Amino acid sequence: MPVYNNLRPAADMAEKDFELVFPKMSDTEKKRTVQHLLPLCEGLRNEISVKQADNNLLVASWNIKEFGHTTQRLYESYFYIAEIMARFDLIAVQEVKSTLKDLYIVMRLLGPDWGFQINDITEGKDGNSERSAYIYNKKRVELPGLSGEIQLWDELTQNSTIKQLKRTPYITGFRAGWKTFAMICLHLHPGEDPDDIKYRREEVTLLLEAIKEKVETKHMWNENLILCGDFNLYTGDTKDNPTIQAIKDAGYKEIESLVGKDTNASQTEAYDRFFLTQNEYFTLGFNAAGQENGGVFNPFNYVFQDGEHTTYKQFMVEQYTGDKDMNDPVNLEKYYKHPWRKNQLSDHFPIWFELIIDSSDKFLTEKLGEL
Fold first, then answer.
1. CATH superfamily of 5-303+345-370
2. Quick one: DSSP state of residue 263?
3. Quick check: pTM over 0.90?
4. Is-contact 225 170, C-beta < 8 A?
């Protein structure tokens, strides 16, 4: 669980000088944060699988809006982000910006058992000053050495107008229990116009070819691969369905319980995805319905809920730069839902799945049969 020192009453601070992340946090803010953390924690316990130290790993991916650049986030928002992250063991984060301010704050709240790995920002207008990050529980996950960016090369792109992906894919290797695997964090070209869909398909085609060649030449370190992140995919045969099929045809599968689940805060599209290779020792947990275990977590069911716009009116009025009358309850509620509360957490929901990291029973049974 995260570090809660900032949520202590003043009497605690008089007895001991606890390290604070937000020394100016008021008692009113502390109380509101605690009142929201309690149902958030319960929701996380109810919706997300339990960690089993020697058996499973909970892997997540989350595009956190303008993580490092927005100036609207309240103190309490960082506690909610950290609380959600702490439920998992390994989180791939997209849209980490050139400044690491937000990342450093969340890492302090997560505490000393947590570490992170980042790549450089992708320069230029198309890169949008973005980078990727992997945040992981050091007691559950190890970094065995692989970390880098996947670059395209001249021979691969000679028949394409695309020479590099707009945001450089970030690959990092991990070890947990019996399992070693590599994650490739992506944030693909956005948009649903025909030209956007065509461009995104070409990005995926080139990436799959690059990965295939690296695997075949043993340059990938590991054949257990997880493609994750914000794919910006739109459902439909005239949209991104052919691109999704191309990923599957290349030997990747999608977690069953995530198929077709909307992942943006507007709940209209399944932008965020996991695609992974599988073999007999790289397997997933199963839920009560018999599906591969995973899900989409909607934090707005517990914090910054519908109907709470009046609670945050003071902050919204101070931060608003438009020309609408924020004393009008209709305008206030619309601004609260979009974009204000999305700027507090994100316009995407975190997605997750359960990876089984102990195959000892299967291994021993097979070896017994061979003796």
1. Endonuclease/exonuclease/phosphatase (3.60.10.10)
2. -
3. yes
4. no
